[in-house]
Structure formats: C-alpha cells, structure tokens
Amino acid sequence: MTDPSTSGRAAPALGIAAGVRRGDPSAAAVVQRHLEAIDEHDGVLHAFLTVLHDSALAEAAEIDRRVAAGEAAGALAGVPVAVKDNLCTRGVPTTCSSRILEGWRPPYDATVVEKLRAAGAVVVGKTNLDEFAMGSSTENSAFGPTRNPHDPERVPGGSSGGSAAAVAAGLVPMALGSDTGGSIRQPAALCGVVGMKPTYGTVSRYGLVAFASSLDQVGPITRSVLDAAALFDVIAGDDPRDSTCLERPSPRCAERCDQGVDGLRVGVLAELLDGVDPAVGARVRQAAEVLAAAGAHVEERSVPELRLGLPAYYLVAPAEASSNLARYDGVRYGLRVEADTAEAMNSATRAAGFGPEVKRRIMLGTYALSAGYYDAYYGQAQKVRTLIIDALAAAYQHADVLLGATTPTTAFALGAKVDDPWAMYLSDVCTVPSNLAGHPAISVPFGTDDGLLPVGVQVLAPALGEAVLFRAAAALEDAAPALSAPRVLAR
Amino acid sequence: MAGGRLTRADAAYVARLARIDLTDEELDTYAQQLAVVLEHAAQVAALDTRGVEPTAHPLPLRNVLRADEPGPSLDRAEVLAQAPAVEDNRFRVPPILGEAP
Question: Is the separation of the CB atoms in A15 and A230 below 8 Å?
Fold first, then answer.
C-alpha cells in the first residue's frame, strides 16, 4: 500500500485514508464534513442526484469500529466517494438521469461499488450525467444540468459531469465515472481534475448500465494522479459476472507513480492537436517540453487513421446503444405508459421516458443496423477500429506513450451546443480513439487558458499500459502550471 | 436514402423499428440531424477495407465457462417489486397476440 506520508506526491484521498487508519480523524468526522459541503454547495452545482446521508454515516461508523478493533480498514478507509448514477447501487435509486428509470431501485450492487466498500470507501451519493451517458456537457440530464465549479455559467463536460464537478469543488476527494467515448476524460479536463479510462476489460462492467458494450469502461476521477492510480488499483480485476473481463494480475499502479519518465519515448500526436483551440494546443506543447526536461525522448507522431475515429464512433456507439436500450420496454422495471397492446405500450413508454439525445442515438443506431445499411455503416466502422488498432500498434513501436489534447476547447457556455448535435459530438474527437482501440488514457490538468478555465492534457498508452500511463501522468502533474481555484469550492 | 436526404417517411420507418412514438415535428428534426451525421459517416462507408477484419471487441478474449455450481440469484420479490405490473409472480403485459405484424 502506498503511504502518502513517505511520498511527496499529492494524494488528498490517500491522505484521508492514512489518517482514518490511525484513528485521527474518524471516518465519521470526514464523512460528516463532506456531507455538509455537499449540502452547502450542491444547490449551485447540481452535481448530485442522490445524497446518502444516513447510509454514508452508518458506513463511516463501521470503518471507525474496525479501526478501533484493530481490524484492517482498507486502502480507502473512510474516503468519501461519489458514484455516477449509471452504476447500480442496491436499494438506492439509479436513474441514468433518465425518466425511464426514475424511481428504480436496483436489486444488486455494481462490482465496482462492492470493491469500493471492500476497500473501506464510503459511498456518499450518486452523481448527475447526460442521460444514459450520452453527451458531452451533462445538459442531457432529465433532472437538469450540472454546472462547472470554475464558472457556473459553463458546462462541466460530460457525460460524467456530476462526478467531475463534485471532485473539482472539493465535495468529494474521488469519484467513479464511466467512459464510452471520453465521458471521464473530457469532463475531468473541463473541471481541472484527473480522469482516467482503463484498458477495456480491466474493470468489471457488471452493474454499469450498458450504453455501448464494446466501448464502456468504469474509471477514476480524482484531484491527483496518485489518488487516481490508487482508485484504479481498487476497482481493477477479473469478475466472473463480466465475460469481457481480462484475467490480469493486480496492476499496482499507485506504487509506480514515482518512477519518472527518464528514457521514456513520448510521441506528440499531430491528430490530437489538429483543430484544437490555440490555448489548449500551447499547453500540450508545454507538457511535451516538461516531459523532455524530465528525461523523456519526445518526438512528433502522426497516426492519420485517428481522423476516422469520430465518424466511426458515431456509428458503433449508437448502434450498440440502440440494441442495449431495447430493454427499456415498460415490462420489468422503470416507467410504463399503459396502452391496449404490448407494442403500443412499448412505443408510448419509450417516447415518454427517453430524452431527445437518447432518441437521436437510438434512431441513428437503428438506422445504421437496419437492413441494407449494416455492412456500409456498422460493418465498416468495426473495420475502422481494426485500422486504428493497427496504426496505433505501429506508433507504439516508436513510443511508450502518446500525448495530445483531451478536448478541443475548454469549458463552453451552458446551451452553446445543444441545438447542433455534430458540434457537441466534436467535443469527443480527441478521446474516442482510445475507446475504439480499447486502450487506456488519462487526462491531467495542465494550467488554464487565457480566461482561467482549466486545460487537460491527455496521455495515451497501449493496451494494459496503465503503469507507464500513470508514470507519465505523474511527471506532468509534477510540473503542471497552477490552476486558479474554482469559484465554487468547499473549504 | 443512403448518403442523401432522409425523408419523414424514412425516419418514421426507423422510429417504428426502434419502438418509439415520435411526432411529425420530431421525425423532421431527426431526419435532418441524422443526415448530418451520415454525411460524416460517408467517409467511413467509402473506405476500401478489403482484407480488413472487423473488431467486435478490442482485445482478444478467451471464452470462459464458470463452474456449474448453484449459487444465489436475485431475490424474486425484490425484482418484481420494481416492475410496473405484476400478476402471480410474473411480469404482466398488455396483449401481444393479435397485433398487426
């Protein structure tokens, strides 16, 4: 276990856990303080859909009992964690920010939620998202948008915008998000926090409400790279309830964050700088210089196939979504709009229960899978995934990690892109290649733009390359220009 | 309709396949917005991918079967408590037979 007291590296969550294991402060005091911060600030931010005051304090009391009894309290003992509301929590509403699941109380916990609690973490609430994780601004929530702590008139990104905003505002030190096309990394970048998408198959998807099954992964959102590595270490691992999980030894990334980047080969990806705001591009260049100064060999790299990523993603993801979301039929759970026949009931329920973006994706995916179009769209897009995987494999012959922007812009104004779907989809252009390839990637806060809004720099690594990913991310964090304090911040 | 404009009738056909009741106004909006996405998708559709295998899952996986041992499953009462309508320990639905094809 990493002891942050012997490492100089910032780790607010691990610091809390180390204190709780010593009995000072108590988990109860830590959780109480964070619940009060949520109560004070979430009226402005709307990061949370559900706050679990009672169960969180009960879980904290159990941690304190274990500490007092000399029992193992866990790597995340007493750490308050927020969980995106597309992760199932037994007996606790899990809405996916959709009317169609309003009031649903899952009969089981997601594997990652079980793992959190087994490590001593305390689940303090469920966070807002774009409906069924479809969006890049958290404006597609049926329960209203989340606001960016750095500027409440701007979006926090999405779809894990509630988790990113809660961490950025200090309402929790760590949170879980899910990333299908950038939904952890993009809001992390826009909110000035760390967000990481693991290798596909590394973290169980059991209890993650499915969006696009061949792309979805759960991952950490934190205020420091070491905390992200520690949370990843906790949630990673094989799960017999997810047939796509890889058998893989414990990654133990937290203990490798300090290994440095001396001799590491870093490729700066031209395609992940192309078309991004100049202020964002300048920060990526600066990040490359930082790594070079720390001993890395930095070279420009071009992987032209990445330009196919966005159009391929917007065929694969909606196609899989249209299939996955067929389960919301008004029969077994959630909303039902009564009608005379089953089909009329299905169609009326889905019309009333889904919001505009979810309907748009289902329409797009259904079209892409419909007779006569399957080969031209979904089939071709699946072949593009192969082209991207092969091209990245060639790039990794000459580089250990790749570097680029996380998002083309910093946080945009609420409402700026809601009427232009493709403009919103472009927010994902730098993040979707890692999902299509199944590779890990991380966004690290790296200074601000001229308007003091946070900029995220993205590190990409080959499949199962989390250890080197966190090493490079830690080196960036060590030399990152400061952020300005969020306007909404718990003290 | 491939690569070109989508009509309201095209959108209505897709909405029927997807089992979503949409208004004429929604059909027109989605027809127009889907056409924009499909314009971008045209570069994918037009690629020469002869000899390229599709990727269904990004990493090679081995099919695994768990040991055939009985274990607990979800509690029936807890599951049925979430259903909109239940009868005799089963999900209750409107008539299915006798509908139009």
Answer: no
DSSP string, A158-174: SSSHHHHHHHHTTS-SE
B-contacting residues in A 410-439 (Cβ below 8 Å): 421-422, 425, 436-439
**Spatial distance between the Cα atoms of A57 and A16, rounded to a whole number of angstroms:** 16
Amino acid at A80: P
Q: How far apart are CA A470 and CA A403, in angstroms?
A: 13
Query: What are the residues whose beta carbons fall under 8 Å from the beta carbon of A140, sequence distance 6 or more?
Result: A97, A130, A131, A134, A158, A159, A355, A356, A357, A358
Nearest to A383 among B41, B52, B57 (CB): B52
Confidence of residue B98 (pLDDT cuts 50, 70, 90): low
Q: Is the pTM of this model over 0.90?
A: yes
Run of H or E including A401? strand A401-405
Distance from CA of A350 to the nearest CA of B (A): 5
Tokens 């979810």 label which residue? Answer: A358
Q: Is the confidence metric ipTM above 0.95 for this complex?
A: no
Close Cβ partners of A251 (under 8 Å, ≥ 6 residues apart): A202, A232, A233, A236, A466, A467
Structure tokens at A256: 């490798």
Whole-number Å distance between alpha carbons of A116 and A130: 23
Chain A residues touching residue B99 (CB < 8 angstroms): 341-343
In contact, A452 and A403? CB cutoff 8 Å:
no
Tokens of A328: 């919301």
In tens, the pLDDT along A24-46 reads 999 999 999 999 999 999 999 99
Quote the CA–CA distance of A111 and A120 in Å, as a whole number.
14
User: Angle A27-45/A12-22 helices, nearest 10 degrees?
Assistant: 150
Q: pLDDT of A243-263, one tens digit each? A: 899 988 788 999 999 999 999
Bridge partner residues of A265 (DSSP):
A297
Burial A400-430 (b: 16+ CB within 10 A, else e): bbbbbbbbbbbbbebebbbeebeebbbbbbb
Report the alpha-carbon distance of residue A79 to residue A317 in Å, rounded.
Answer: 34
Interface residue A8 vs chain B (CB under 8 A) = no
